[in-house]
Design brief:
The chain contains 15 helices and 3 strands. It has about 300 residues and is mainly alpha-helical. A hairpin with a 4-residue loop joins strand 1 and strand 2.
């Protein structure tokens, strides 16, 4: 079996396992880099030395460290599959370690910037009402752009304040939102035709798309003069503010749909300063000391 044949068999296996088309495409793209580097050699000739040489070659290209880490992670998954399927004898994946990546600092929107965004939708037109609801849901739930565009009308439960989203890996999850988002979503829902399948629509009645959202944020960037504005920035803002307001990191992991807690911990350093300022309100020992004192005061008042 050649490397190309093994890759094709691996991708078919990913489809059978139920991975999304987007995930399979990402695997194909990443493994094509390795195939171009190694050439279509017999699978038995894939060695640890070859994989390490490939890793070094990736660094000679204009790729970010995060991209390099992604390509290596996907190659390791392929190597592990080869070993488990007994197509190679050596467990290369065990020795071919994942490199560290320099992750960019996470940024968040300020209160003033959030106000500027909402101010760009002042009217009661369909698009302004819809866009206010979209921004509110992004900021108060942290859902991804790809999740928002696929929300069906029967997925969103406005009185109960939660929405069902189709997350990565075709995993559905229930995501809560607050009262302000509820009110803006309810106002928008009143503008929807009764027979629509999807919740967020374009002006012509067709469902919004990723392109629709990218165009909206491109226009918002120009109108608000917030150059770094994009949909994921709202997700970062939600996660950081949630922790600042005393939210639980494990609950945040569930809300965001992350399989690893490490991904969520990136938001902790942004919330640390606020957490330190608020600690006086949550100190266990301070509360313990206050409770006996209050009981003593109540006892002294007894006849």
């Amino acid at each position: 079996m050649t490397l190309r044949e093994a890759i094709e068999e691996y991708l078919i296996d990913q489809v059978i396992r139920g991975n999304s088309g987007k995930t399979v495409t990402a695997y194909r793209y990443a493994l094509s880099y390795f195939l171009n580097f190694a050439t279509d050699l017999p699978i038995e000739e894939v060695t640890l030395s070859l994989c390490r040489s490939y890793y070094i070659a990736l660094h000679t290209r204009t790729l970010s460290t995060v991209t390099v880490q992604t390509y290596v992670r996907q190659l390791r998954a392929f190597l592990n599959w080869l070993f488990l399927e007994e197509k190679i004898r050596e467990n290369i994946c065990k020795k071919f370690r994942l490199p560290k990546a320099e992750r960019p600092t996470i940024d968040v929107l300020t209160d003033e910037e959030i106000g500027r965004i909402f101010e760009t939708f002042p009217s009661e037109s369909f698009l302004d009402v819809r866009n206010r609801a979209i921004i509110a849901l992004f900021l108060d739930s942290g859902i991804r752009l790809s999740e928002l565009v696929t929300i069906k009308k029967n997925y969103i439960h406005i009185p109960e304040r939660y929405v069902i989203v189709d997350g990565k890996g075709r995993k559905q999850r229930a995501v809560p939102f607050g009262n302000t988002a509820r009110d803006r979503l309810a106002h928008y829902a009143g503008h929807l035709p009764p027979d629509t399948r999807y919740f967020f629509l374009q002006e012509n009645g067709s469902p919004i798309t990723v392109t629709t959202m990218k165009d909206m944020f491109r226009d918002l960037k120009d109108r608000t003069q917030i150059e770094r504005l994009h949909a994921h920035l709202l997700r970062h803002t939600f996660a950081t503010r949630y922790l600042e307001n005393g939210g639980n990191i494990y609950a945040l992991q569930s809300i965001l749909g992350h399989t690893s807690l490490e991904m969520v911990k990136r938001y902790l350093h942004l919330a640390t300063a606020q957490i330190h300022r608020d600690f006086i309100n949550f100190s266990p020992l301070d509360r313990y000391e206050v409770a006996p004192a209050e009981e003593e005061e109540k006892g002294s008042e007894a006849p």
